[in-house]
Amino acid sequence: MMAFILVMSLHGLQSMITELLPEFSIGGLGLSIGPFWFVAMSVVLLFRSFWACLAIPVGGIVFGEILIGDFSALGAVEGLIVVTLSWFFVMSLITDPKDVKQIAALGFLAKAMEETAAWFIDVGKFYIGVEELEAISWLPETVWATEGIGALLQIIIAGVVFGAIPTLFLYPRLRGKIEPLLGMSPVEGRDGPMFTRTSLKRLIAWVALIPVAFAFETLSETSGGLITFTPEFVETYGQAFLFVPIAIAAVISFGLVAYRQRKVDGLQD
Amino acid sequence: MKYVDALTDISVADIKVDLMRTAYDNEDALLNSFDPRVVLLWTVLFMIIPWLFYDTLPLAILLAAAFALAALSQVSKYLLALLLFGQVTNVGFFVVLVPLIGGTVRAVGHLGENAGRVVAGVMAGDASVFAETGSIVAAAVGRGIHTATTSQEVGIDAVGALVPFFLKLTIISVISLAVFSAMSPQKLSKGMLRLGVPRQLTFAIAYGYRMMPLLVEEYHALINSFRLRSKVPEKQGLFRWRYFYYLLTLSVKAFYPLIFNVAKRARVTVEAMETKGFSRSLGDERSQALRTEGMMVRTRDVTFVFGSLLFVAAVWVFT
């Protein structure tokens, strides 16, 4: 729980700050400063618990979306699933927590996994959302390419420049100092191979849950596009008839609520 | 030039004030006076409704209504500008980038089609193959440029087709901006709790609201103290890149002390929460009932929901 609050606050602050920084836009490809992934990288990999992983997306959602007011309800679920599982998987690969290079490389791997998943999800969304655009023959490849370049840029900027490189300096300075502040002892390394049974299980979970994340993301962005709204009564009675069900529902629920409110207010008096 | 000045004069302090206002100053906001459950469900409903329209005119009317709502909810203008800018660049993406990359893809495709022939020629030791290679490359480049320029029109057509799409996205974002900046944190977390969102998450929201000003203040103070103790680079370099690099490294370094401070604060918070029995009350029905006491759907909530629905129906019928 402590690690959860810690990571959430830090990552949230980071995402809020970088959200507000201006973006350099080169021909539509956003080249933003940050996000400062090194914060999450060095702190999460220090604590290595599921809660710390979960705190990354939650922090981003709370600070970067709800507080600012730009909250995409269902779309947030995608990040929640993909980010948490990517980091949870990578965490199981750590064998020697004293080896900074390994930590930085694994942090980079987590970011790369997450961006790749996001890439597939975005392209898939395009296929579902904008069907009429498939009329242009080269468009699908173009979307693959542009989204891919975007993902690659993100991996380089967020994963290396603001991820692995600062982690190399930050991680050794934090290890052994921050755990006592929370009343814990530093995590020890383990012997044996890097890729264990636990890692395999988590990797399978990652692969299995990407479609779920995809479903949520598509639902949030194109939900109504899938519903075609042509009730029969509109055709038979004309469009003005649309008011009737709404008006009836309004009258009924208004009456019900007014009755209940009366009752409660009467009790209070 | 005045507009440009207004844009470049935005300081960190301005943004901070704006942010605080968005998060806290919402006592009089219209949406804050309704029952939070109703507002949340209403938001979900209105995230679907724009998708039922396909023409530009009704969508534009809905967008205007959304902006009116945003004005009533005292949405931060800075954020609104940021959002609109994002949408506009999205449209720009289709005009500029799609033809460009489409052209490249075509050119590479052409090269690939003809690569076989060239390889065969080289194998045979034919000298004329080099001239042929040149012509193939030239043809590929020509084809790429041709695609890029002609598909400019296609791109613009695509923008025409995409305008309703982006209008829909903008409506949804403006509405969610209005809702989430208008609702106060207590109301928001109460409403979510009642709708079945886990306590940990609603706690995170409440905690975020509490901590945000402190964290921003602390981070700003740290950056300022780093600036006091360090030296600005003397040469600014091309596009002042040295200066920006300096600022960037500062903002990265300032996270180091911040991490320790937040760690201490997190420990105090958790200990205080456990003293008051947080973990024990997590699954308890009575605790939840106590927390969400006094919430009731009132007639004005119903009026609000159905009033807005009737407005949408009117837009649907009369346009």
Automatic annotation (TrEMBL), chain B:
The chain crosses the membrane at residues 39-72, 79-101, 158-180, 201-223, 243-263, 301-318. Signal peptide: none annotated. Pfam families: CbiQ. It comes from the Archaea. Keywords: Membrane, Transmembrane, Transmembrane helix. The keyword Transmembrane helix applies. It is a multi-pass membrane protein. It is found in: Membrane. InterPro entries: ABC/ECF_trnsptr_transmembrane (IPR003339). The keyword Cytoplasm does not apply. This is Cobalt ABC transporter permease. It comes from Haloferax gibbonsii (strain ATCC 33959 / DSM 4427 / JCM 8863 / NBRC 102184 / NCIMB 2188 / Ma 2.38). The lineage of its organism: Archaea, Methanobacteriati, Methanobacteriota, Stenosarchaea group, Halobacteria.
